[in-house]
Amino acid sequence: MKTLNLELGDRSYPIYIGKGLLGNSKLLSPHLTGKQVLIVSNETVAPLYLDKTLSGLSSYETDTVILPDGEQYKTLETLNKIFDALLQRNFDRKCTLISLGGGVIGDITGFAAASYQRGVNFIQIPTTLLSQVDSSVGGKTGVNHALGKNMIGAFHQPKAVLADLDTLDTLPDRELSAGIAEVIKYGLLGDYEFFKWLELELENLLTRQHTALSYAIERSCTDKARIVEEDELESGKRTLLNLGHTFGHAIENAMGYGEWLHGEAVAAGMVMAADMSRRLGWLEFDDVTRIANLIHRARLPVHAPHAISNSQFLSLMARDKKVINKQIRLVLLKAIGDAVISAEYDESILTKTIERHRDDVVLGG
Fold first, then answer.
1. What radius of gyration do the chain's Cα atoms show?
2. Annotated active-site positions, please?
3. Could you report the per-residue pLDDT of 176-229, keeping only the tens digit for each?
4. Could you say which of 15, 199, 263, 280 would form a disulfide bridge with 4 (CB–CB 3.0 to 4.6 Å)?
5. Which domains does the chain have, with CATH numbers?
């Protein structure tokens, strides 16, 4: 097992990465503040890993909430099911919520923990690659709205994160690739050496070689932790972690939450961001091709869906959380491994980027 620490003063916490972590009471107990524990999971993950998790909590008063599986259920209506359980079962403000699942479960459980009695303890047990490398770390919680993704939420840091590699053995191939998209993001935005490592080791990730997976999770979490430590509430540098997300969130919303996985939409969004960076004169065509090739090798899309019109794409991007004074701020690339936040671009360049990628034209057209 490897342990990283995210340093945020009195809100610092460990990130445990390894095999056989589920049910380890020695890891869980130090982070439980009271005797009441509510585990929130979904219909896919619970049959696989709930009993193992409960085995490490035998000395606590435990209860569970099992939610439907899918991004389309990341809503205020679903959130209320957690509140109903907490109130009906008289959970007090010393209770701990444990999220057992992917990014949807982690986000919605964290938001419930941030809101219940104005804030209670919670622990992240991410079971997908995407949640292990990204969404479980950093304290972003929330739900979607029909008009925008993750527009309702709060910053609420967990007490600990347990990333058990064993849970990746049951992860569908499509979900694995979606997680690799977020791994690639870290190489692109500020870790060129990691990007080069990914070019060499991608097949080992796709075949679930545990040494490669462990390293990718550790490196991704390390990169994210350092950024969050500098800018916890996303007032500056943390925005870089949204590389590809402004384009990607528009795709998710337009297609209907759950049609495209989050990582798939971000993958296409990163290629769009790279292509737009080329149009601004920052990247060479070979750089864009290199990025697109790695994403394609990861079995991820490199173009947006044809069904989204230019006007719809721009309208959805205009609702992004990074918009300030009606300016769409984008995370773009000065080089592979060097991301910047910019609103200084001609809108015609953004429109051209959207148009070309919707039409599935070869990059550089």
1. 20
2. 118, 140, 182, 224, 234, 238, 242, 245, 249, 262
3. 999 999 999 999 999 999 999 999 999 999 999 999 999 999 999 999 999 999
4. 15
5. 2-169 (3.40.50.1970), 173-358 (1.20.1090.10)
